[in-house]
Amino acid sequence: MRTAEILECSRRDHAEREAVVCGSTRLTYAQLGERVDRLTSALMSLGLSQGTRVAILAHNCHRYLEAYFAAAAAGTVLVPVNHRLASREVAEVLVDCEAAALLVDPSFLGICDSIRPELSGLKHVIVLTDQDPDHGLAYEGLLRQAPDSSRRVFRNGDELLYLYYTSGTTGLPKGVMLSEDSIQFMVDSYQEYVNFTASDRYLHVLGLGHRAGLGLLLAIVRAGGCAHLDDFNALRCLQSLQEEGISVAALVPTMINTVLNLPDAARFDLSALRLLIYGASPMPEALIRRVSEAFGVGLLQTYGMTELTTVSFLPSHAHALEGTEAKVRKLRSVGPPVRDIEVRLVDEFDRDVPRGEVGEVIVRGPCVMMGYWNQPEATAAALRGGWMHTGDMATMDEDGYLYLVDRKKDMIISGGENVYSTEVEAVLYQHPAVVEAAVIGVPDSIWGETVKALVVLKAGQITSAEALQRFCRERIAGYKVPRSVEFLESLPKTATGKISKKDLRAPYWAAQVEHGSLTHALFAANLPGGR
Question: Reduced to 3 states, what is the DSSP secondary structure of residue 137?
């Protein structure tokens, strides 16, 4: 089933069922389908030909979902732009993809005005409002004027459907090209593990400017259920779970942590919730246990990346908190690869490592991107030998379950010993006073790097660096224990809600870069020029 057909089927089978809730806006499948038809017709009437890039810069809203379906039906390529980017970064994305049209939330018009002179190829600005803007076209006015047409452009499975730009942690953002087939593989995979039905109500607070969560959103529409769209806010999240009878929700670990630490979180009735989905970054075992105790629902972990729509799932039955060590150990994994996906763990020369040893995760299968937009060299490097090289380091057990240990760039090499930051963080999260923790390598004249922990304490809690070091020393090898601990009010986050180790590392490695010493500093800090 093609992406454009997903909505058509639910519109036919579930016309009067609620499809989308967004603030005070509630749309049935019949209403959503009509709006998508009109937007599809409007895009075509503006002369946006097949393959033309249409960008969108907006908060999570029903119009964003309409754009996903209409772009697919019109034959254009949708380019979701992260609304947390600075104006310079937005300009780089729009220039790089040669966007011919931009759908933009009124709150971001200031950004558009500041970069408009650089966007010579941008022909149409469509403001997501029903009010006539000072410049550009009003979205609702455009829909009212467009005929309610069922015209569709047929797409081959290998055609470019969506173009997502990575966060640019290693330099300028790269446009990741995702085909119709890869998107459908993702939707099928999510539906297989989540098993959405028409009675489900799904809360989507993951940024629609990112690939993360798109498979869930398309899957709930395909099932004829209801999607609740909102930007993440911990209190609103709990209110929606209670008041709207949400049965499935997806959050990244930092969001879950924020929700759990709300002072009155326990007073909300979450009895309708049957499944909590998490991913985007590893979740410490201590946090998994807290989630299980607080929510008492099934958990599903997903593992993928922008370049790989879906790699593996860790289903609810593998989240065992009690039992044999082998059984409990599974909850520390990201699960086995999904069907039709091949995964290998390799060394620096792309040779397979023995089972149980650490290697880089490389992937082959229908989940893999087409490549990077206009970057053949970067594409060749990432897809060398026909395998996507993820940069994730992992082990695999005898049952084929993957255990992520670190990102290549996050691994700390101290005195010749490899220290995986996630292992140290998992221990820190077990401490009763710790609410968030990040472990990084900092330069050291003797050891090359030493382990540093940056910690946020729970409200009202007090502890010392020495106490945390003793706590770690009782649980992990001495060379893994943080040599220094710094307490912060909060940790910087990326747009997807992950802790930004790039920002945490940069101040410590800046002096090394300035003095031209330690080539590894460029790599460790992810600064331009690093490998």
Answer: strand
Check whether 258 has a pLDDT greater than 80. Answer: yes
Total domains in the fold of the chain: 3
The reply to whether 217 falls in a domain is: no
Residue with tokens 């330099």: 171
Q: Residues 438, 486: one domain?
A: yes
Neighbouring C-beta atoms of residue 27, cutoff 10 Å:
20
Report the CATH number at residue 338.
3.40.50.12780
Q: Could you tell me which residues come within 8 angstroms of residue 181 by beta carbon, excluding any fewer than 6 positions away?
A: 157, 158, 366
DSSP single-letter state for residue 217: H
pTM flag (> 0.70): yes
411 has pLDDT over 90: no
What does the alpha-carbon distance between residue 176 and residue 321 come to, in Å, rounded to a whole number?
37
Question: And the tokens for 292?
Answer: 């299980």
Residue 331 lies in a domain: yes
Q: State whether 106 and 166 are in the same domain.
A: yes
pLDDT above 70: percentage of residues in the chain: 94
Is residue 17 a contact partner of residue 29, using CB atoms and an 8 Å limit?
Answer: yes
pLDDT cut 90: percent of the chain above it: 66
Segment (H or E) for 345: strand 342-346
Nearest one of 369, 347, 343 to 360, comparing CA atoms = 347
Q: Using pLDDT thresholds of 50, 70 and 90, give the confidence band for residue 374.
A: very high
User: Which residues, other chains included, contact 279 with Cβ-Cβ below 8 Å and sequence gap of 6+?
Assistant: 212, 250, 252, 301, 302, 303, 304
Domain boundary among 379, 407, 435: 407
Q: Do 422 and 370 sit in the same domain of this protein?
A: no
Which range of residues forms the domain containing residue 415?
Answer: 411-525
Q: Is the domain of 400 the same as that of 283?
A: yes
Average pLDDT over every residue of 363-367 = 97
Predicted local confidence at residue 521, as pLDDT: 36
Length of the chain: 531
- d(C-alpha 379, C-alpha 409), whole Å: 19
Q: Are 465 and 485 in contact (CB under 8 A)?
A: yes
> Does residue 524 surpass a pLDDT of 70?
no
Measured distance CA(11)–CA(95) in Å, rounded: 36
What distance lies between CA 152 and its chain's CA centroid?
Answer: 29
Average pLDDT score, the chain: 89
Burial class (CB in 10 A: 0-12, 13-18, 19+), 178: buried
pLDDT digits (tens, 9 = 90+) for 458-505: 999 999 999 999 999 998 888 899 999 999 999 998 766 788 888 898
Specify whether the backbone of 372 is left (phi greater than 0), alpha (psi in -120 to 50) or beta: beta
Same domain membership, residue 431 and residue 402: no
Token pair in block for residue 360: 């880089």
| Residues contacting residue 110 through CB under 8 Å, at least 6 positions apart | none
Res. 282 pLDDT band, cuts 50 70 90: low
Domain co-membership, 45 together with 164: yes
Can you give the pLDDT at residue 518?
40
Q: Which residue has the tokens 């809203």?
A: 61
